Amino acid sequence: MAEPAMTSFDAKLDRLVRRHAELRDQMAAPGQGDFAKLSKEYSELTPVVETVAALRKAQAELTEAEKLAAEGAEPELRELAREELQALSARLPELEQRVKLMLLPKDEADERNAIIEVRAGTGGEEAALFAADLFRMYQRYAALHHWRFELLDVSETGLGGFKEASAAITGRNVFERLKFESGVHRVQRVPATEASGRIHTSAATVAVLPEAEEVDVRIDEKDLRIDVFRSSGPGGQSVNTTDSAVRITHLPTGLVVQQQDEKSQHKNKAKALKVLRARLYDMERQARDAARAASRKSQVGSGDRSERIRTYNFPQGRVSDHRINLTLYKIDKVMSGEALDEFIEALLAEDRASRLAEVE
């Protein structure tokens, strides 16, 4: 029987296995200059190569089982081979799928830290209270994942609500897990101030930006207008007697960033530049990915800040994600951050499935 022709997928796997072996040999060679770079690539390829090895072992076992099932001398051997054939036939597609998922191009920003911004939308004070609830939900979620949650700026209403709030979240794969949170979050509940018990609908907007380094986005000082002023608390109450608050305007894009959380003007400027850099980097990513995002908008959304992504219905105790038609009747656990991963895992799976469909 002729050997089956090698597919482009098989050829690609062969190249990966050869590259992995080359890297191992280069790392073992004396006087290797770029050891860190080689080691990083080697460690990234290792799990892929191990899964490829498992796939090829299963393929070889399948071929052997087929032979035994057809030509085995003993009836018992043929029966055993048929059973093994059944198990391997079920396992092979899973292994192939796992290898394909591992080969999907990674979003370069997935491993980055993130800056999260939550803003009250339509709905007055109730929207501001919901924005504060959402912000705390992400703070609790970060704590559950042992991520660092550093408050950047909060603009309070004086009644417990947030007009807007931002934080820098530092940890492992932060952006990958939070990137699908960008968009409009809608709430349906009876406000504490509502005497008649009527359900109100209001909204808050979430933006998740990958944190950018100076090498990613170069900001020219001459493109900035920097204004300093006194920090103020809720209702205009002065909280600082010095001009420590900083407002930076990026003249080419018109982006404005304001920081007043720190008592030091220098620290506020550093934080504002950090946010500005993240926003500029996000703008570049959005422009670069626009065509791809448009083609996949029906899948998990484009990350458009104006897109309604989730509804939190408190009277019914449910949270619904409109992109993947997933509803959880555990609103308290979602708001405490405990059940948020159920949405995030489903969104990541849907994203992987849609990207797989594009390359298959």
Give the gist of this structure.
By secondary structure, the chain is of the alpha+beta class.
Describe the protein:
The chain is an alpha+beta fold and 360 residues long. It contains 10 helices and 11 strands. A hairpin with a 5-residue loop joins strand 2 (148-156) and strand 3. Helix 1 (8-28) packs across helix 2 (35-71) and helix 2 runs antiparallel to helix 3 (75-103).
Descriptive keywords:
three-stranded antiparallel beta sheet, 48% helix, flat, alpha+beta, 10 helices, 360 residues
Mean pLDDT comes to 82
- End-to-end distance, in Å? 28 Å
DSSP helix count?
A: 10
Number of strands: 11
Order the strands across the largest sheet as they lie in space. Answer: 2-3-1-5-4-9-10-11
Mind sketching the topology for me?
Elements: H1 8-28, H2 35-71, H3 75-103, E1 114-120, H4 124-144, E2 148-156, E3 162-170, H5 174-178, E4 183-189, E5 200-210, E6 224-229, E7 245-250, E8 255-259, H6 265-288, H7 290-295, H8 297-300, E9 308-313, E10 318-321, E11 326-328, H9 331-335, H10 340-359
Parallel strand pairs: 4-9
Antiparallel strand pairs: 1-3, 1-5, 2-3, 4-5, 6-7, 7-8, 9-10, 10-11
